[in-house]
Specification:
alpha+beta; Rossmann fold; Coagulation Factor XIII, Chain A, domain 1; 3 domains; seven-stranded mixed beta sheet; 20 helices; transport; ATP binding; membrane; ATP-binding; Transport permease protein
């Protein structure tokens, strides 16, 4: 029970922190850049009131004959402006802040609530103006004024509920915003804002009762009655209040709860990132028996996405796809049965090529995505940095962005206060924190974002490609920091990177992900070397050749004369350079009128360049081959090899009329060449071998 209560407290605290900061930012940016600024929140409804008063009161004579009608019109205008603005902006807020939701985990309904609350603040300012005007319009305020905040809260909850429902539809169908504009226009004339309800009740009693069933109309009427309309006035009608079984305020609350349930799936309402503390219940099988306590357990996690195959952002296309039975998407499996443990004090590396599933895994760990299978358990405070500077706004100052970013990570203003001086000092931006972020250079922005990332006081730090930032001096400072973190047994770091140097330098464990699966795990050096080999294998050397070179050097590829030609390793792919590298060349050859020869080519896959080619040896075509299917074993001494990644190609060639250019019959394509890496501490990382000291040796022919 105590763990559950702690979970609920953390969830509530985190939601409040993010909500407050988003409300502040939204209201601050709403009028930023305008000459009058926040005064527009007062002037806009006043100008609208002036137009409506002139048209409907002075010209059309829509009045109930009381001196408070004008101020009542102003009050109704302010309330309607709030409802219209809150629902429109709230509906679009999830889409407008979608980039934030994809990088930081927090409940999406907070964005909608914060946006509508920004409109609520403007309404509060407007109502102060209404009250002041009321004194000059001979309004008689009574104790009923105390009920107005409850009426306003009721209207806010109703606007929030509609925003959540419409926002969910807007994510899928952009037509919703245009439809809502029309609905708002129709609702405006169906609500007694510009005309008194007594006028409708006089001519159409049934219509007035139906109008009061509208919760928006009823709420606006309640505010005007409690604030302005004197008791006994004919417009002070209680029609429709008992027409529904629910009391009117509860209808709005029920609507908001239903909207939240419909819009936000249950699993997405759970905080798994930020400041949430969870307990490990069923850890996955670890790679070793490290006795330290588990900080993160990932057990049999799988994830897939639906990739759209049809454009269906509009209602028309969605309907047509439905009538034709077109799903409009295909399933893309991104992660398959991922399991590993990270123990406290680990510096854990996750590597893999783009599209392998690293970032998806990181977002699942951070709680941004929910796995369709498997479990993720976290012990401690997890601080994710999927992208540096997430949530940074160029219109805010550096100071304001630090507090905004901290709130999104789950830290209160008091906690950010405690970290603030260290963040600024590390970023070396003391003199610039009150400048807008848009005036920062790109390097200054990165330094500030990185400083927030590494100075955040969390137990588990999740970093996605954020190491190589800033100039040389700043990188040295970052390097010193990570060395300190590496030596701190209380800190755990999960690092996703393409830098194998960083993996070897900082990490004590690592995994390599390929096509959504872990193919190598354990020692970071082995993982880094295997990653380098995978990259070398995917580099197609022949694609770097010009079209004319390919046409001349390799005109045929594999063909009926040589239907099979491949190079396979016998020795381990990662070599220490102390013993030769052994490999086999398997071929199938149909003889012709000329003798066939087997040639070998060695390429440095990391630096580029052809290190060795059999035809660079004077008047030497290669190893004579026989007809049929054969396998030949070779070895190559590694005494003079520097550390790098290499690949071996095989060719079949015959003599030609030009002794300098033999005729090529076939070559191994990129899928059937052989890749290997040399890793030896005594070797250099620079330079390319010369073929003068390189020699392939045939060991035997295996039939």
């Amino acid at each position: 029970m105590s763990a559950l209560m702690q979970r609920l407290k953390d969830k509530y605290r985190y939601s409040i922190v993010v909500f407050k900061e988003l409300v502040k930012t939204d209201f601050q940016l709403r009028y930023q850049g305008s000459f009058l600024g926040v005064l527009w929140s007062v002037l806009k409804p006043l100008m609208l009131f002036a137009v409506m008063y002139t048209v409907f009161v002075r010209f059309l004579r829509f009045s109930d004959g009381t001196p408070t009608f004008a101020i009542s019109l102003l009050c109704g205008t302010c309330l309607w402006s709030f409802f219209s603005e809150a629902t429109t902006m709230g509906m679009q807020s999830i889409v407008n802040r979608g980039d934030l939701l994809r990088k930081v985990h927090f409940p999406s309904y907070i964005i909608v609530a914060a946006t509508t609350m920004g409109s609520m603040i403007s309404l509060g300012i407007n109502l102060i103006v209404v009250i002041v005007f009321g004194f000059f319009s001979h309004a008689h305020y009574t104790w009923h004024v105390l009920l107005v905040p409850l009426n306003i809260l009721q209207l806010y909850v109703l606007a929030l509920a509609i925003s959540l429902l419409m926002g969910t539809l807007y994510v899928y169908f952009r037509d919703v915003s245009h439809i809502w504009d029309v609905v708002l226009q129709a609702m405006f004339y169906a609500i007694p804002v510009i005309y008194p309800l007594s006028m409708v009740a006089h001519y159409f009693p049934l219509v007035s009762k139906i109008m009061l069933l509208n919760p928006i109309a009823q709420t606006i009427m309640d505010v005007r009655h409690n604030l302005l309309v004197p008791r006994g006035h004919p417009d002070r009608l209680d029609m429709g209040r008992q027409s529904l079984s629910f009391p009117h305020p509860l209808r709005a609350v029920a609507a908001a709860a239903l909207a939240r349930r419909v819009c936000i799936p249950e699993e997405q309402q759970q905080i798994r990132g930020g400041a949430l503390v969870t307990t490990v219940n069923n850890p996955a099988t670890d790679m070793n028996d490290d006795p330290n306590e588990i900080a993160l357990s990932v057990s049999h996690v799988a994830k897939s996405f639906r990739l759209p195959t049809e454009q269906a952002s509009g209602l028309k296309q969605a309907f047509l796809n439905w009538t034709k039975g077109i799903k409009g998407y295909r399933e893309q499996q991104v992660l398959r049965d991922i399991s590993f443990n990270v123990r406290k004090g680990d510096f854990f590396g996750i590597v893999g090529r783009n599209g392998s599933g690293k970032s998806t895994l990181l977002k699942i760990i951070s709680g941004i995505y929910i796995p369709e299978k498997g479990d993720v358990s976290i012990s401690g405070t997890l601080v994710p940095f999927i992208e540096l500077g997430v949530g940074f706004n160029p219109e805010l100052t550096g100071r304001e962005n630090v507090y905004l970013n901290g709130a999104l990570l789950g830290f209160s203003r008091e906690q950010v206060d405690a970290m603030y001086d260290d963040i600024v000092e590390f970023a070396e931006l003391t003199d610039f924190m009150d400048q807008k972020l848009k005036n920062y250079s790109s390097g200054m922005q990165v330094r500030l974002a990185f400083s927030v990332a590494i100075k955040a006081q969390g137990d588990i730090l999740v970093l996605d490609e954020v190491l190589a930032v800033g100039d040389e001096a700043f990188q040295k400072k970052c390097d010193n920091f990570f060395k300190q973190v590496k030596d701190d047994p209380s800190k755990t770091v999960i690092l996703v990177t393409h830098s194998m140097g960083a993996v070897k330098k900082y990490c004590n464990k690592a995994i390599l992900i390929k096509d959504g699966e872990i193919i190598v795990s354990g020692d970071p050096g082995n993982v880094a070397d295997q990653y380098s080999l995978e990259n070398a294998h995917d580099l197609n050397y022949f694609k770097t050749k010009s079209e004319s070179e390919k046409a001349y050097r390799f005109p045929n590829g594999l063909n009926p004369l040589v239907p099979m030609l491949q190079v396979t390793p016998v020795s381990p792919k990662i070599c220490d350079g102390l013993s030769p590298f052994v490999f086999d060349v398997e071929y199938e050859y149909t003889p012709q009128d000329k003798q066939g020869y087997l040639g070998l080519i060695l390429q440095d896959a990391r630096r580029g360049g052809q290190v060795y080619d059999i035809d660079t040896q004077s008047h030497y075509l290669g190893v004579p081959i026989e007809s049929g299917h054969h396998k030949v074993r070779f070895s190559i001494p590694l005494d003079y090899f520097n550390n790098s990644e290499f690949r071996i190609f095989a060719t079949v060639r015959t003599e030609s009329d030009d002794p300098e250019h033999p005729e090529f019959v076939a070559f191994t394509n990129d899928d059937f060449c052989c890749y290997f890496a040399v890793r030896n501490d005594r070797n250099s990382e620079n330079g390319i071998l010369s073929d003068r000291v390189l020699k392939f040796e045939q060991i035997e022919q295996i039939d």
